[in-house]
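BUG-145 | component: ligand-complex export | severity: low

The export step for coenzyme A jobs runs without errors, but we want the raw record kept on the ticket for reference. Input record follows.
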Amino acid sequence: MTSFDIRLIAHRSPAYEETVALRDDILRKPLGLSFTPEQLGAEGGDYHLACYLDGALAGCLILTPVDDVALKMRQVAVAEEMQGRGVGRALVERSEEMAREKGFREIVLNARETAVPFYDRLRYERVGDRFEEVGIPHWKMRKSI
Ligand SMILES: CC(C)(COP(=O)(O)OP(=O)(O)OC[C@H]1O[C@@H](n2cnc3c(N)ncnc32)[C@H](O)[C@@H]1OP(=O)(O)O)[C@@H](O)C(=O)NCCC(=O)NCCS
């Protein structure tokens, strides 16, 4: 079984900059978008998780505190050549574990419609109606942890 090395990384660290490049490749460039310095500057209070395989960055995600109860999961990105090999599942499961340890009780997220089956597998439920964000359809999803 593959063993992923999942770490909490610091905002503005070299490891963080590497995740920004991955997020840009996977989540922004395909939509013709890029991150602004303001968007990245606002991520200082977030938890940044990175997953490595044999020392190479395979995926990452961000957890943003909403209130004392909920964390918002954002920017879930797995390197193209690593997709479908359990990296996303490992990152989400570790996030849930970490969130519980920190006293949070719920994870919420805005899922791209194409990623809804992935979150379904991880037992997230859809709430509300389909909506548009960054020009593509999304669904709000949540899970009690
Ligand atoms: C969506 C994404 C994060 C999933 O990560 P991944 O590492 O490829 O997914 P995993 O291999 O961990 O899959 C976990 C489970 O979800 C299932 N799954 C993943 N993508 C799926 C899909 N598109 N349709 C159906 N099932 C899917 C897998 O079969 C697996 O099931 P199992 O563990 O029960 O066997 C990744 O593919 C990605 O970065 N996609 C592009 C960016 C994106 O859409 N990000 C999410 C924005 S909301």
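Assignee comment: Attached the raw record above. The chain has one domain: 5-110.
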